[in-house]
Queue: 4 jobs
Job 1
Amino acid sequence: MPALVRIVRTLRRTLLQAIPTLLGIIILNFFLLQLAPGDAADVLAGEAGSATEESVAALRARFGLDSPVLEQLATYLNNLAHFSLGFSPRYGMPVADLIAQRLPGTLTLMAVALIIAIFLGVILGSLMATFAGRIPDRLLSVFSLLFYSIPSFWIGLMLIVFFSVKLGWLPSGGSGTIGSRLTGWAALLDAARYMVLPATSLALFYVAIYARLTRASMLEVKNQDFVRTAYAKGLTPFGVTARHVLRNALIPITTMAGMHIGGMLGGAVVVETVYSWPGLGRLAFEAVMGRDFTVLLGILLLSSLLVILANAAVDLVHAWLDPRIGAR
Amino acid sequence: MSTTGVGALRNISSAYASATESEQPTAVVATEGPAWSNVKAPDARSQQSATIAITNGRRALKVFFANPNALFGTGFLCLVIAVALLAPVFFPDDPLSMVGRPFLWPGQDPAFPLGTDSLGRDVLAGILHGSRISLFVGLTATALGLTFGVLVGAASGYFGGWVDDILMRLVEIFQTLPSFVLLVVLVAIAQPSATTVTLAIAVISWPTVARLTRAEFRAIREKDFVMAARSLGFGHGRIIFREILPNALPPIIVTSSVMVATAILMESALSFMGLGDPNVVSWGSMIGTGRELVRTAWYLTALPGLAIVFTVLALNLIGDGLNDALNPRFSGDR
Amino acid sequence: MAPLLQVENLTIGFPRAEPVRNLSFEVAEGETLAIVGESGSGKSLTALALMQLLPRAARVSSGRITFDEQDLLTLDASQMRRLRGREIGMIFQEPMTSLNPVMTIGRQISEVLKVHEKLSGRAARARAIELLNLVRIPGADKRVDDYPHQLSGGMRQRVMIAMAVACRPKLLIADEPTTALDVTIQAQVLDLLDTLRRELQMAVVLITHDLGVVAQWADRVVVMYAGRKVEQALPDDLFKDPLHPYTRGLLAASPRLKNDFHYRDGALTEIPGSIVSAVGEAGCPFRPRCTQARASCGHHIPPLTVPAPDRLVACPFTSSIKAVPDAVALRY
């Protein structure tokens, strides 16, 4: 019961703190995008090729692009209050639907990448901490720094060259075999085959971060008195690491994982363009190219919301891992 | 692709350290009250701390140059800088112009040691010239981001109160926005050019510095020598820049090398996506154009990528070396 | 009958120092042996050596540790693990940091029982509650689910004790068990240790720098200085008639042993210098700080002699020093 109280209290505090931030983000984004030259009507007209002054003005009026800025903002905020993100002239559909279409792709990609990154990172970091200062540690340290220095889009392309062009093992893009009617395990396996390369490209950078963080964190925890107590109880080194060191060392790692959700979303934008992965990142890129403000606003807002939610989730994990949090 | 990379990771520990420090009420001037009857004393004190800082600096330099990784990083970075400066001497022609037969593989023609691309442009010339934009963007964006971040962080940490509240709210907004998405938006709005890319990277990178500087300032402003300076009626500017900032520098220096690395990665990712300066050859744009031919001529993407990897790796090695040299608490277990 | 624990000529070495040199002592079953010395005298390292838990850089360079007729230094890692927590329990100085902050105290106690007695989760929990009762924690059945930060320092040390005695060890090593606690709590915790010793028939190695603790709870006392044993005696003899100049200094520096002494009456006596000054010197390690030092003290390390039954002292001049009144002996 105290754990639940703690967690609820933490959640409430986190969400309350997020409200002004979210408001700030909405307003900032809106005004930022107002600064942009050209608008969706220009682009649409340009694409149609035979645009006249009148037809452009008509388009503007239709999408409310000709009203004063403050009014547009008010409209936008009002729509938001009704859970509507507006209408995309370019795609001809509500932004919320558009995002809802693409969101699962990105979330899956990010989740898989995050799991790979944390899993590998924690294992590598534990190894480094165990052999601290010796050859395996030094080698892994250099490797992790190398991973940290590789741009994700480049490693993505190199993986394509190696695994799909040279070896032919894995598909080079997309999110599933087109036109296949697979179900059950076969479908999952098919999806996994498409997932491996993009998720690995995205994860590699974070593997490096988590490995280094785990190493530092474990070395710090290992020197603490309660670890000696655990040895004095007659636990095996593995038991001490698994039951005592790791859980304490994971606390800063969860903080970092939360901080990286935003960064990972950015990484997803690039990786999605490399693998033509149908996700939010690619949509954002297309929206920028097409100057589709409504879509962009929606994506920025939603990804910020995602970051806030991720932080709340991290706070919860934190409160669960560390009983001292939320007790105050 | 994140500003909160290893830099933040390194800083998290120092932030923890300073947080715990600031929680403890520091014994302030009162205990040493009589000692300050001599008006010269505080100056002596700050001079003393300055000399300590210098000897520490020397010691740090020694540690830094005793580290083979850091030496390698520094050496490679110097090479890249030399290449960037000398590129117009070696290859005075525009690297975007056609000079030979297209699709020459590396080693096929001694005139083009790294081959040519689909339009017959010299890959080696491209890579050498590409270092210019990478370094320019990386260094300038970092300088701008550092300056702004330090100013904001210093004001926030030093003054506290409502200044701190407002500035930190701003920092929080910027840190919640996914930085690369924001970067893409900023560059797209402002039209891609070397200047806008640099400014945009600076805009997304300052919050990390601000947060770090704030944490350092909050810890240091409670220290005795700052109290002494304050009790003598020194102006805020003098206390901030002459008393606190020099002591807050080590973690900021470590962060700056990682910031340059991150900025170079960001620039290359933007150019890769076609959001770089269209008139300048850059490593990212070379990869972006080579990408279409990755099945047949993969060297066109591999080679500029290696240039990015090694340059960024060099910077990160330097950052690691600086961290070991300036942060003795963590160098012991390496 | 062989003693439960016998330490012979134990030397512990770091790459550049030997913080414990040629140390010998023994502990009989059910006995409390106090090892006294200031910080840096090597007493905590000795305790860790008994558990084979020395820091990585340190190692036992020579000597023998016999516990229950087994040579601990020849045991392999898994044999040693079977002893730790089951045959030898240990309590550390800092109850604040010696418990895992993210695990309930119940689980931390159960852990020992699960490892050594292969108890099921439920049985271990029941035993943990019993143990918490044994160490006099009120409301043990509720407290068992508390985290360490919810307990006071004294309570945490009781939890440490519960953990250490969970498997009824034959030997309990208590490394400064009360140093970090309030004075009022100290006596309670030591009382508890003493009661448990009798109830569970344990031997106790009590490591402390506090002679007050020794006077009340020890059966025998070993005084260490700079990694060596300088004196060994029964507590009564030691307090009545300290032989080694260092012991005399310790006694004078300990306020609680003099009933009429109050802080206001005067500054506490200090032993001049510090233990660091002893490193790298030839001759008696205490010589640089000794008020009675003579030229011959610098020649060689004084051997342990037997001035009286049940006593050992490493100073050849004890009889002449005894003639000097306390106040003179400690002036510097």
Note: Chain A has two domains: 2-95, 100-321.
Job 2
Amino acid sequence: MSIMQGFQMDLVSEHRLAEMTPVEKVRFIIDEVKEGKILVLEKGLSPEEEASLIEMTMTLIEPDGFSGIEMESYPGEVDTSIFGRLLKKNTLKTRMTVIGPADQLKTLRKDRNMISALISTQK
Amino acid sequence: MGVIRKIKRNFADLFKKLFKKQNARIGIYGPPNAGKTTLANRILRDWTGDAMGSVSHIAHETRRARRREGVTIKTNGGSITLDIIDTPGLATKIDFHEFMEQGMDENESKRRAKEATEGVIEAVKWLDNLDGVILVMDATEDPFTQVNVTVIGNMEARSLPLLIAANKVDLPDASPSTIRDAFPQHPMVSISALEGKNIDTLYEEIAKRFG
């Protein structure tokens, strides 16, 4: 009997992420990606959370070990709804985001509405 | 009379010191090798006569943020005084092997990689202390990089002004129109920081956006 080999891809719902604080989200993503998983976040991260994720990633990079993440998200869209305007603050609608280990996930092409990536089973 | 004039002048100086508006802090951001330090050097040479830092074709040459205070840029519409912060290139991954491929030995590559990670952290932290950003993009590269998306998102979330500099238009593969199409909601100026092409237009936009 052949053993199936490959990588694990987790599709994380908006609801699941919404239950977490920004710190928990970043920690969750880093832990999963360091285990070699590819995450697809239904609603992505806020720009501030993306910046925090980059910051924490940098603190964990090691020679001959973890070399970082590949993260691809679509550009956010400014919320122009009445509620958003009432708040008088730019509220960004975040969009789907793919995150994985830098040595396994490689973006081939990306535009406003399409992300094409290559996932390697070998590190 | 002389005493009164002197008192008046001293009072005016004190008033200026007490109520002096702080210069806008403008960060120069972008991915590694987009030409951030080349642009910072161009601005400083044009308006102060010196330079910000060294440049190299090897990525992450700038590994510490550098600030130059009180840079006055004069344009047709007046003048603006800014604090310019040249930041290290933002990245989501740093592999020391890439520096070895550029001819560095292993120890030097690991040291550079370590410093580069610290530089990225510093650049991210600066985002909280800025009044605006000049986002430098390499016009020969795909503009939809995560770094560009994250920087633009952070500026939009903070409602801070952003100016895109589509750099390296002196190169034959440059396509600034691709950048304009990618981020049409933000002003963009096509420049060659290296050759100074279109740099006066950039100064006009800087005065308009950050003034």
Note: Chain B touches chain A through 32 residues (CB under 8 Å).
Job 3
Amino acid sequence: MRPLKVLIVAALSVGSLAAQNVEFFESTIRPVLAEKCVMCHSSSLDTPMGGLRLDSQEGMLTGGASGPVLVAGDPDNSLIVEALTYKDAALKMPPTGKLSDAVIADFRTWIQQGAVDPRTEQTSAAGPSAKPKQNGPGTPIAEGRKWWAFQPLHEVLAPQPQRQGWSQRKIDPFVLAKLEENGLEPSPEADKRTLIRRAYQDLIGLPPSYEEVEAFANDSAPDAYEKLVDGLLASPRYGERWGRHWLDVARWAEDHPTREATNQPHPFAWRYRDWVIEAFNKDIPYDQFIRMQFAADLLPGFKPDDMRALGYIGNSPMYHKDARISRDVTETLASDEWDERLDAVSRGLLGMTVACARCHDHKFDPITNKDYYAMAGVFASLPLVKRPIVEIDPARADKLVWDYERLVRHKGQLGNLGEPDTIADQVHPIVAKMREDVKTLEEELGKDPTPMTHAVIDAGIWIDGNTPTVTWIDVRPGQPRDLPIFIRGNVANTGEIVPRRFLEVFSEGEPEPYKQGAGRLELADNIVGRAGPLAARVWVNRVWGHHFGTYIVGTPSDFGTQGHRPTHPELLDDLAARFVENGWSLKWLHKEIMLSATYMQFSQMREDADTADPTNQWMWRLTPRRLDVEAWRDSVIQASGELDLYAGGPSEDATGEVSRRTVYSQIRRSGLNPMLQLYDFPDASQHQPERQETTTPLQQLFVMNSSWMERQAASLTALDQGIADGAARIEAMYRRTFSRDATQKEIDLGLAFLKRRQAEIGREPWEEYAQVLLGSNELIYFH
Amino acid sequence: MLSPTIGSAEATPIGPHFAPKAKHVIFLFMTGGPSHMDMFDPKPALLKYQGQRPDSVDLRTERMTGGLLPSPFEFKKHGQSGTEVSELLPQLAGTVDDMCVIRSMYTFNPTHTPARNLIHSGNIASTRPTLGAWLSYGLGSENENLPGFVVLSPGTRGGSLWRSGFLPAEHQGTHFNNNEVDPEKMIRYLRNTHLDAKAQREQLDLLGAINQQHHDAIGQDAFLDARIQAMETAYRMQFEALDVFDVRNEPESIREEYGATPFANGCLLARRLVEQGVRYTHVYYGPGQPWDDHKDLNNNLRGRCPDMDRASAALLRDLKRRGLLDETLVVWGGEFGRTPVSEAGDGRDHNPYGFTMWMAGGGVKGGITHGATDEFGFQAVENRVSIHDLHATILNQVGFDHTRLTYRYAGRDFRLTDVEGIVVKELLA
């Protein structure tokens, strides 16, 4: 269409009427454009509004986000006339006030006569936005299908490094070959005391006891280490450690970034957390683990308490949607929610930045704007609801779900309309009816004992702006919603409707639309099926990162063209292929990694290697690092004897009176516990690719001065108060805190401190001493 | 993955793109949306059409509104510039020649949380990095013992407004509760409740020695060194912060000039922090959203303005006396303005279409008013300034091209101004 129009105008503009028409443009149209339009629509701006430039003929013909603004000779079909006449509520220009009828008539005349416009593009002033609109994603789909991360998985023949006898598992020759290629040598194997501490912290996030360390150090059986790893993998503590890593990917939390009428906290969010922990302990195959989180209730063998798995999307962040704000604003907020979910899923599970394609085709990766809305439609068809986790009559279950849904939605929306009998009720009889409904529901549901969990269910979400002053959210059970393309992400400017489906790059040709409900099971099947090789690579890379502190792909949530390339591509492929062959078993993967010579290396610094490879990307040692806040806090409360291993159930404050494992601490998006926040706990309002690891003075103020640390120090002190001899008591405290014997020097340091302080305050300050041990580097260090 | 950092500043900040006019920013945030027509934007037509509802004011707002509500406050011209402010602001009336009053601000959302997110982070969702975090990321800190981004807010809620989003966590705002005057109560964990400085010194010496033993056994390690350093910094910070954050160290005359309310202490502290090299200080007026005057506008503003007026003006005068105003950009405003039409008879509803903010110092022109709203003060119509424009202008003053201050996240380069924003050159000296 567009080139044709250009031709028409070009022909007219050289025609015989040209001179006359130029004069008309210069005297009547140009001044109006200059005065009323170009302040927002000019190529001199970095970002002209709506991408529209009205300061040259080319700009006018190219148009902006809504397409060309004029059809020469046809004012009735010219967008600019429609905008000027203020007929379309969504498109009134200029926004500062309607122009006079006379001016609008001039525009009609001008367009009728061929829209002659002598202005040429000011190329020098034209910014990047003045470039012709890009068509198609940065990497075309056909080419994108060849991208390394999307290729089928197959085992890779291990290379033959020169050095003999080092390798233990198949990982090792891959690593060793790269080390040799880069002129590096691996580090020697760590001693047994280091290994056991490493294995404990890594797999269960707690240090071993002194006795466990000694027993292991003295166990000369060749399979002692393998047995140790097996034992830890079988411990219920394992799921508490690795489940937490998953909760990071799932950006799990128990409330929303803000707390208002329509986004109240989720009281049963802990049920999803508990399900995740159990799933890790049971080693549910990763592909099944993913399927369950989208569609546990639709899978064969479903048990009612599997419903908890739906908390992955069911506990997503929600934004407040006040009933008094306009339809467009509410739809924007809703589409932001869908966007966040799509982003968490696509980056978290696939390492794909699909959300980049919300406003246009992806600038770099083979993802189209259509792909985005095809996938977003799934989330526009999945409201967050409560569902029962016990066996009850299906009809009753259904009623419960929708009663709860209506109660929460109506209550939230009424929450901002003021007290009963105010204006809102008089204007909208429906409001009074809703109030009645809420009252009845509260009464009924208050009596219902059925345990519920936060989940999703298939129902399309529409925003109803038909009532002039109130915007309702309309949820239609069983009726999924295909979204239109929101042009440039603008909900008020819709394009073609896109059926719900998966990303095109993962299928031959156009993918078939989803048919079952929202399409959540189909989406999950696609993620671990068609995109399975990618999903396996992404997950294997995350697991690798937790074990080693560095990743094979340094951007764990971006496997696209803008992400890092793998340092060891064959290793990643081989490991991911074997992971899938071994039934997507995470416990298999842990063992494969932890029994490798690569993993068992010492972590000590070696100047030569560090100069050549300061980030340790070739893995010449195990990267030492700070423990994350969960492992550190749990280590402190284990040393102080406070650790309560009671598992599951509602959460507590991380620095409160109850000392359960940190995985059971309250996680809030609206205000995180300060200890967690200080120690880089991720913001769960959106997907975070990995944890930051900072070392700041504010963390140390916590160690030095918080009442929580003081309480732990007091508990540690109390444990050995029966030991009269100072040196013996210090030794006992070292065993508790560091699972090792104190050196003579360390005993001397302690005794000297106690003596000096005794001289000053008249008693031995054991609490002060205990706090130093708990605050020491050794307890927060992983190596 | 291991990136130890000392202090709160990133080891290698981006640094400015060009010579900055301002080295510090103080944002005085009027949570709730202060009424521009009663303070900075006189609208005599409101009286003329009192109670009426012409077509041009039939804009959708959050709540039901009635007819036009005239301002109960008298406006006069002040200073050499003749900038008009209302009788509510007798002190700021004396500093108008240093102020650049922007009467044509507009925003995109009529509800508090999204609008507040937008002005703090350039986006209506509660996820993006905030302005202070961007500045900390871009500029780092001048003082290793203090954070680069300080938040002074009475009460503790609102953490998401000083989030670092996808920027490294060290750039998040550090919150101090300026409801308190005693620094020990303002800063979490700042002081040990039972050990004196000497006892704590001995404790830290023992910790240092024990860490050294561990260090000797482990060998060289950047993290271990960094944590030992951070522990020492924390020890010093306790005393430095005790001093810096204690407004009671100020002469009586200065404290009297600012006043004794939490906001006054916030303003005074902001000046002290500028002197210590803190890059960005965000001072909230009150907990909750005090400027949200849906009803009883007259009494509410008469009650609240004296405190705000006195402290804000004192801050400008004090900075100027010390020669710090030139290098400190002070920004004043809320998430939106209020409607010229009444709510509940004597209040005003939220107004995202037009409102007033002002800036002073830091290389902006003093004694000007920029832009205009329509005859009733509902919509910005002349020289409109968006929130993105405001952000672009603030970044420009501290030496950044807002289109180039970017952070690669989730596959693309993000900006505070997203794909919008134009530096408002007319405001610049």
Note: The longest helix of chain B spans residues 297-321.
Job 4
Amino acid sequence: MCLKANKHLPIHFVLSFFLLLWGCQSGQNREKGDGEGELLTSVTIGYADGFSIDHFGEYTKVTIHNPWTKEKKPYAVYYLCKTDTTTLPPDGIPLKVPLSSLVVNTFSYFEFLRLLDETDAISGVTDGFRIYTPAILHQIDKGEIVDLGDPFNPNVERTMSLKPQAIINSAYAQLDSYSERLVQAGFPIIYSLEWMEKSPLARAEWIKLIAAFFDKEAEADSIFTAIEGRYLDLQAKVKDVPHQQSVMAGDNFQGTWYVPGGNSFNATLFRDAGLDYRYRNNKESGSIGLDIESVLTQFGKAAFWIGCEADTYGELAEKDAKYLLLESVKKRQVFNNHSRTTPSGGNDYFESAIANPDLILSDLVKAAYPELLPHYSFTYIQPLEEEAAREK
Amino acid sequence: MKNKTAIFIFLFALLLLAFISDIFTGNASISVREAWAALFGTSGDAITDEIILNYRLPKAITAVIAGSALSLSGLLMQTLFRNPLAGPDVLGVSAGAGLGVALLTMLSGTVVYPIISSLGSMAQVIAAIAGAALVLLLILAVSARIKDSITILVLGMIFGYVASAMVTILQSFADPDSLKVFVTWTFGSLGGVTWGKMPLLLAFVLTGTAIAFFMQKALNSLLLGENYAASAGLNIRRTRFLIITIAAITTGAVTAFTGPIAFVGVVIPHFARAFFGTVNHKTILPATLLLGSILMLVCDVVSQIPITNRTLPINAVTAIFGAPMIVWIVLKRKKL
């Protein structure tokens, strides 16, 4: 049985339940050092810092690294086995793979699962009304997927009732009570930390992590290699542009304009798309809050504006006439990421884009250097529409 | 007297009923029979047992503890300050707890991460208790120098505002995810107290409640005014010190474990006085504890009703559900 002694399980029947549910044998193998077998191979991870996958003969060790510690200590360790008789080391979460039922509490994994053809494994999600992926919405309607409510405070009872084999939950720097409850009840949690990665390819590479839980490492590798190939090809294409276009990003939120820090996901994307971004040498990995005056002085001359929240130029003018002073607005080179949205607030940009960095990059290149991608049409972003301001 | 005993028996029965209802209702479809089996043995399904024994049961017990502790704290504040609007939060202790949690949430990804992560889920409780204790120490330091209780009330509220202002500043610097983590805490949750945490919460609240029971006479004499109480031989400063400490510790502990829960503390003491038609603490004190527990249990049952797949935050349910009950009482009696 894939099992280990867990000090968090106060009640034996929970233990016995999982004994029945999964099959490998309890890992008390003391002869081989820390209970680990012989390392045979490790999955090559080219970009992501957040995880590693090592094969040890009868089982696979998946380690999610702790991004908040300098020495990359493990945040969570999983031992994946395929048969009921495998002996596993006791220092990790045992799981029998492939998984067949999963609660997914983070939107970015839908596309990973779709690419791996494992969408059917999803039994529960959160914030169902904000989901874009049509297949998942359809399954929610049919009652095959249960909506568990607020992603920051999901319904504990319903989650447990689904009896999922694992729960994918976003991890933050502090333990949330939802995860704590589920861990105490013996449910394995796969911590989602791809959002801490700084580059688009690194985030997309997390498909390899989730694939390990479905025993589909080879598929994930070929999917990622294809994505990587397309991304790098495009990156090479824009290297030779004679003049780099300048770009501004973000939007005004209640008086503060949040722009991406130089070490952030978006700044990397701009760099790879051959765009000149003012904060590219900044060390911040999150966002930087600016006031409108700083934005006007620092980004007033930027040729492009990516990530605007408005849908039309009229709406922009109505929101704040100062927007009209921006060069990007004057040139009508403003883009939002509302190309694929649902009326109730779903936006594919926050779902499938993580798994498809080549498409986000193509979007940016198409916007700034359309001649490089003559046959491509936008996936996630779209230019603002021309529409007169509404009468007040 | 007989009448009073009858009311107490009735309230006990109501408490029991509310407690059982809270355990038998929830979002997982578990029948009463299964829940009963899980409670007194095993239902045959490990997950059902887990939900009943390790989720609903501690949640119901937490509701009883939180409801009674906050109501007790409110009663103590109303008696000390002789102000009907006083509640557990007037000393600024809840705001202090909020400041502790906000600091923790915003700083958790920085250099202090190793310390925070080593504390696990107790980190939030410890941060909240530290914040609440800081405000309590300030209040006690001030109250030792000030004679007038109302001035302490005003200063307590000022400390509360300062703590809230600092929380606002922290929020303005926070990234959206940390912000949401903190905002979720402010919704309040009875479900976060595991068996492991329960003894600590109980220790704080039981100590406070026990001391309050020994102070019934002192509380009654305070109702007549501080001057009268002093002339009757009451050591005002010591009594005040004790009352503030008990109220702050019970409120701080509950807020630390469940997040802020509004309304109950201010209103239940009024409810108790209206119910029994007396202000004598010998009656009102136990009545407040009982009524607070009942209201909190009922609110927890209500908060489980899913609205578009979300359960309502307990902090909001207490006011939304509790207010009509109070208005009904007021209309019936024409006063509180």
Note: The mean pLDDT of chain B is 89.
